[in-house]
Amino acid sequence: MRQLFLFVAVAWVVLAPATAPPANAAGDWPWPVVGPVVQGFDRPDTPFGSGHRGIDIAVVLGSPVRASAAGVVTFAGPVGGRLFLTIDHGGGLESRYSFLDALVTRRGDAVSTGQVVARSGTGHAGDLVPNLHFAVLLDDAYVDPLDYLGPIEVWRFIRLAPLHPG
Ligand SMILES: [Zn+2]
User: Fold this and answer.
1) What's this model's pTM, rounded to 2 decimal places?
2) How far is the CA of 166 from the centre of ligand 1 (A)?
3) Cβ-Cβ contacts under 8 Å for 122 (sequence gap 6 or more)
4) H or E element, residue 2
């Protein structure tokens, strides 16, 4: 199943880089990039425990990364040789965009919803499919980004992966 999903993800990235992503989104934020979620959120048991503190959205390397909500850039720069960007949306909410290829905004910039803030990179070290690691924090705790992202147009995905072939 995972292999099939990976294949679909690769096909998506190759064939349809500019369409909409599939997932079970529950909020109203626009997606920072458009593509399938190849790795979901896995809440760590402890603040420093293992887990996955965001979602990985497969997308062509160098794609525009858009602010999911209006806010102020509070960090934009390298950490351990990789580029990160954080936007503070107020009310204890932050979004983080990781393993970027390039930054388009700087710390202190006010950004609007959907504004391009960066270019996507290759993803976590060793990832097979280029992706954006997208994280959301509420009061400094990581939460599932899919609770904030808006619904998506699933039909765009289904045409690449028919659920009822024949
Ligand atoms: Zn990730």
Assistant:
1) 0.78
2) 35
3) 61, 99, 101, 130, 131
4) helix 2-15
